[in-house]
Amino acid sequence: MKKLAKILFEKNLTIACAESCTGGFLSHLLTNIPGSSRYFKGSIICYSNQIKNEFLKVPKKILKEKGAVSLEVAKITAQNIKKLFRTHIGISTTGVAGPSALENKPVGTIFIGIAFKNKTKVIHLKLKGDRIKIKEKASKKALEFLYNLIK
User: Fold this and answer.
1) Contacts (Cβ under 8 Å, ≥6 apart) of 67
2) Which of 111, 49, 121 is nearest to 82 (CA)?
3) pLDDT, tens only, 90-139
4) Please, what is the average pLDDT of the chain?
5) d(CA 14, CA 151)
6) Residues 136, 26: Cα–Cα separation, whole Å
7) CB 27 within 8 A of CB 46
8) How many structural domains is the chain composed of?
9) What per-residue confidence (pLDDT) applies to 1?
10) Domain that holds residue 109
11) CA dihedral for 60, 63, 65, 70, sign (positive or negative)
């Protein structure tokens, strides 16, 4: 995390998060560094489809057809949190932390989206562990993904 924070500081980049399955843990990690208010602008924990639709403008049609746990939702929420908070980077998490499958997707199915510059990239992960471990792993993988994109 310190290496990521150093790059964010050096490049004067700002970030906002749209978190579903990680429930705020990603924001927690991003704000653990002293001075993080220089790069971290805020987050929305968009656990419900209503919040994804109303605040992050995910179309109801996509939520219905693709599901909340999908590449499409990760992409849209990353793009729209970036716009909403007027940051350089938007990062999103959506997935199934458990203990039960959701939308016919197994526990550990995670999508992480990052909107940076004029591109949005999404990765799909299949994580193992209990609910807490999956949330922690997904958050840490999101930070690794971000670090590798901006370094």
Assistant:
1) 73, 103, 105
2) 121
3) 999 999 999 999 999 999 999 999 999 999 999 999 999 999 999 999 99
4) 97
5) 14
6) 8
7) no
8) 1
9) 83
10) 2-150
11) positive
